[in-house]
Design a protein that fits this description.
- The chain has 499 residues and is an alpha/beta fold.
- The chain has two domains: 4-269 and 475-496, Aldehyde Dehydrogenase, Chain A, domain 1, CATH 3.40.605; 274-464, Aldehyde Dehydrogenase, Chain A, domain 2, CATH 3.40.309.
- Helices cover 40% and strands 20% of the residues.
- It has helices at 13-19, 59-73, 76-79, 82-98, 100-111, 115-134, 173-187, 201-212, 227-235, 248-261, 283-295, 312-327, 347-362, 398-401, 417-425, 440-449, 482-487, and strands at 25-27, 30-32, 39-43, 50-55, 144-145, 152-160, 163-167, 190-194, 220-222, 241-245, 264-268, 274-277, 307-311, 366-369, 388-391, 408-414, 429-430, 432-436, 454-457, 472-473, 476-477, 490-498.
- The strands form six sheets. Strands 14-15-16-13-12-18-19 form a seven-stranded mixed sheet, with helices on both faces.
- Helix 4 (82-98) runs antiparallel to helix 6 and helix 6 (115-134) runs parallel beside helix 7 (173-187).
- The radius of gyration is 23 Å and the shape is globular.
Length: 499
């Protein structure tokens, strides 16, 4: 809960009204405080001001939420016809669209991203994901199998995997909730959703909207908290499936726990994605593409194009134009409609990015743009960081190998297609890669050579609810979106009938 004087004047009435309410966990159909009374605060990263206080869920709250999810799974939710389940998911999509302004402002204030971006990308894509998965419940079917033995009827059933623990990150909080909830609900699963502690607000609001449109209690439960809450969810014996988006380090721990417990798991983790410009590419298009690939959402994207490979003959011209464009970028609070890049999400993330940049300079990388915090004035002390561009000649430096998760681009020259493909693949990660060229033959050749879950040709970062998304190597396990995303929430049961 906040007060009117704490909140920016640009905030609309609906978002302001929501923020001035008491914020509580959602368990079943109850909004409740944490069992032990603990709370924490969430801040506006553009100013450092506290905007809300939310409960810190503990083990007792995890137990209650998982029990509510189990009751719903075996009760009212299981009894709903598939068509009715689809209509509820569609109704939630409609409710999200009806609350676009409120949700976009909450996202901009809590996460820091420009409100124009939150409205056009986050909220719009969130509704699109629910609309897409609303069509799946009536299309989930088993098969009749032509087994070789006589006098037998054999068929398969596709059933929900069960209670799902879904842990989402802070860079796209509302959208990541949709990525997780959409296929789970379509499959008939129930969920305990845990948003990142930095950005809890839109997940809580989404849970409320689900109840308002008629979802049975317990189908969607929302627990706010930190890593302690997430660990309790992952380890809970009555959770059947874990879905996590976040850092590779935490993903390894979750994967190990899931392996020990033999739980289903999908992990969408980090990246250090290579963006390759070929010699025939239009220089202006290359600059636009490279800028969008890394500085979108202030570089806080798992598939950010944080490594830029340029042909030697185009190198100086492209990096000079990129540096000029980075220097001209307008930073500001998310609620300012003129803002191009918002702040980083937290002081911790700001310190992390600054540390990488300082070590990059110390290691000998050439700094061409940015490289420092950029306060917007004496009255603003948010977690801003200037769009930063480094030039390096090799791939051995830390800034060229490790995920920074901030507005930091590392550019490097190359000489041949084979060389650049090898260098692009020389990474622990394999989430995304890109190619900018007018030669589609070369583009398709590179697409086949690159070890990445998504390859973007002449654009960056496009997404669709029907298109699988996920990574190779340390970038994750499994896929989200589309049929493949849905499959991870279904179990196959084979039924044999003697005739």
């Amino acid at each position: 809960m906040s007060t009117a004087t704490d909140l920016p004047p640009a905030l609309g009435e609906a978002a302001r009204s929501y923020l001035e309410r008491e914020h509580l966990l959602l368990i079943g159909d109850e909004r409740r405080a944490a069992a032990d009374g603990r709370t924490f605060t969430t801040e506006d990263p553009a100013s450092g001001s506290v905007i809300a206080t939310v409960p810190q869920a503990g083990e007792a709250d995890v137990d209650a939420a998982v029990a509510a999810a189990r009751d719903a799974l075996e009760g009212d939710w299981a009894k709903l016809p598939a068509a009715r389940r689809g209509r509820l998911i569609a109704a939630l999509a409609d409710a999200i669209e009806a609350h676009t302004v409120e949700l976009a402002e909450l996202e901009a204030l809590d996460q820091g991203k420009p409100v124009t971006l939150a409205r056009a990308v986050d909220v719009r894509a969130t509704a699109a994901h629910f609309h897409y998965f609303s069509g799946w419940p009536t299309k989930i079917s088993g098969d009749t199998l032509p087994v070789s033995q006589p006098n037998l009827f054999c068929y398969t059933r596709r059933e929900p995997v069960g209670v799902c623990a879904q842990i989402i990150p802070w860079n796209f909080p509302l959208l990541m909730a949709a990525w997780k909830l959409g296929p789970a609900l379509a499959a008939g699963c129930t969920s305990v959703l845990k948003p990142a502690e930095q950005t809890p607000l839109t997940a809580l609001r989404l849970g409320e909207l689900a109840l308002e449109v008629g979802f049975p209690p317990g189908v969607i439960n929302v627990l706010t908290g930190d890593g302690e809450t997430g660990a309790a969810l992952v380890a809970h014996p009555d959770v059947d499936k874990i879905a996590f988006t976040g850092s590779t380090a935490v993903g390894r721990e979750i994967g190990a726990q899931a392996g020990r417990d033999l739980k289903r798991v999908t992990l969408e983790l980090g990246g250090k994605s290579a963006n390759i410009v070929l010699a025939d590419a239009d220089p202006a298009a290359a600059v636009r593409n490279a800028f969008q690939a890394i500085y979108f959402n202030s570089g806080q994207a798992c598939n950010a194009g944080s490594r830029l490979f340029l042909p030697v003959e185009r190198y100086d011209a492209v990096v000079a134009e990129l540096a000029e464009r980075a220097a001209a970028t307008k930073l500001g609070p998310g609620l300012d409609p003129d803002t191009q890049l918002g702040p980083l999400v937290s002081a911790e993330q700001h310190d992390r990015v600054r540390g990488f940049v300082e070590r990059g300079i110390a290691d000998g990388a050439e700094l061409l743009a940015g490289g420092s915090a950029t306060p917007l004035g004496e009255d603003q002390s948010g977690h801003f960081f200037a769009p930063t561009l480094f030039s390096v000649t090799g791939d051995e430096l830390e800034i060229a190998r490790e995920e920074i998760f901030g507005p930091v681009l590392v550019a490097s020259p190359y000489s041949s297609l084979e060389e650049v493909a090898m260098r692009a693949n020389d990474s622990d990660y394999g989430l995304a890669a890109g190619v900018v060229t007018s030669d589609l033959s070369a583009a398709h050749r590179l697409a086949a050579m690159l070890k990445a879950g998504s390859v973007y040709i002449n654009q960056w970062g496009l997404s669709d609810p029907s298109a699988p998304f996920g990574g190779f190597k340390a970038s994750g396990v499994g896929r989200e979106h589309g049929r493949e995303g849905l499959e991870s929430y279904l179990e196959t049961k084979t039924v044999w009938v003697g005739l």
